[in-house]
Amino acid sequence: MKKYKIVTLGCRTNQYESQAFADQLKKEGYVEAKEGDKADLCIVNTCTVTESADKRSLYQIRKVSREFSPEKLVVTGCLAERSKKELKQLEEVTHVVSNHKKEKLLSEVFPKKEWPEFQIERFEAHTRAFVKIQDGCNSYCSYCVIPFVRGRSRSKKVFDILREIEALVENGYKEVVLTGINIGDFDGDQSPPVRLSDLVRQVDKIPGLERIRISSIDPDEVDDDLIDAVVNGEKTAPSMHIVLQSGSNLTLKRMRRKYTKQDFITATTRLLKENPNFTFTTDIIVGFPGETEEEFQETLALMDEVHFAKVHMFPYSDRPKTRASRMPNKVPSTMIQERKDRLLRRAEKNAYDLRQTFIGNEFFVLLETEEKPGYLMGHTENFLPIYVPKENLRPNTLIKVKCTGNNPEGLIGENQTHRKIQTLFA
Fold it and tell me: How far apart, in whole angstroms, are the C-alpha atoms of residue 315 and residue 84?
């Protein structure tokens, strides 16, 4: 029996693509290699969004080679796109497959074999499924290498997306996350274009689906129609990942972002007006070239205003080919680290304070993993982490929970479901 191992770094789009590889391999009789096994095939799906992502990708290539001694070691993803020549020179690597050939990766490695369609049917080790609806980006922000390694924006067809989600629901999934590199550019690969809001409304009609989330979007793309689709959908979750990057308009301008901090505040305020339980997560870059203490303070002030449920923080690092890499007034690494620490402390406090406001409320919670002895961790519909006494409960179940307490990791909840628990996976 042939064995494979897949290592994934970076974004949810990479996670989706790696799961598609796994589904293709399993349909052809492959099994996942365990510790101590020799693998016939290893795939490392890399990331290059930051300098540390490059280092982690290279570390994983060497680690998987050392631990699984694969006959074929394939490197793909954004680092493979940017540093193809250098990766090919690594002794361990047998194939380097660029992003634009990713959907045909297995055919590139095994050209004489026919492989199943590149799409997911089950998202292993997850209780929610990420569904890739779009790839690439046309924005060319000054710090970002992604347009160079992912190419221009392109969308999947609506029919294919709906068919894939229907298959996931048939396999027991109740929650999907619509994901991509820049899903605000979604057009359904047709003319006239299909808007993201139109897709959300169609996904909302799929029988058996319980929750829809939107993975990541810019504030200027949260328009009237998308707000209507989200707040009036039966299955759309009251949470959204809206990208900030900085709370300073001067910094945003140097970043070549398409919006201002006022646009961000307008988007979040309008969603909260429609549903006071709405919560937000975001991305922030610390130490962008030229960032002054005053500009950094503007970011902290906006964080205090919005109270994010979670902040994904990225310390700035130069990326090849980008405008920012050639900018003057680089922030010293020691100052970036100091600002990073301050921002993370503020983010944790704000998230704690936000959760505190929901004590006493009841939510439906999708239970996921046993991260603490005796407790199952899950998320409310507005994406707050919550811990529930395990008792007779199992992961992958949906229950009604009352929020009774709060700690630095998340809310504490009490099971309120006195009917038969609905099992999400058979």
Answer: 25
Q: Give the CATH architecture of domain 362-423.
A: Beta Barrel (2.40)
Tell me the pLDDT of the chain (426 aa) as tens digits: 999 999 999 998 898 899 999 999 999 999 999 999 999 999 999 999 998 999 999 999 999 999 999 999 999 999 999 999 999 999 999 999 999 899 999 999 999 899 998 887 765 556 788 999 999 999 999 999 999 999 999 999 999 999 999 998 888 888 999 999 999 999 999 999 999 999 999 999 999 999 999 989 999 999 999 999 999 999 999 999 999 999 999 999 999 999 999 999 999 999 999 999 999 999 999 999 999 999 999 999 999 999 999 999 999 999 999 999 999 999 999 999 999 999 999 999 999 999 999 999 999 998 888 888 899 999 999 999 999 999 888 887 889 999 999 999 999 999 997 544 444 433
Structural domain spans, the chain: 3-109, 122-237, 241-357, 362-423
Q: Across the strands, what pairs with 6?
A: 43
Angle at 40 between CA 127 and CA 149, to 5 degrees: 65
Cα distance between residue 424 and residue 173, in whole Å: 6
**Ramachandran angles phi, psi of 302, nearest 5°:** -70, -35
The dihedral built from the CA positions of residue 200, 204, 208 and 209, taken in this order, carries a sign that is: positive
Architecture of the 241-357 domain = 2-Layer Sandwich (3.30)
Q: Which two tokens stand for residue 213?
A: 């989330």
**Structure token pair of residue 425:** 């996976």
- Answer yes or no: same fold for 122-237 and 241-357: yes
Read off the pTM: 0.85
CATH class of 3-109: alpha beta
Q: Is 45 in a helix, a strand, or coil?
A: strand
Nearest to 386 by CA among 405, 374, 373, 396: 405
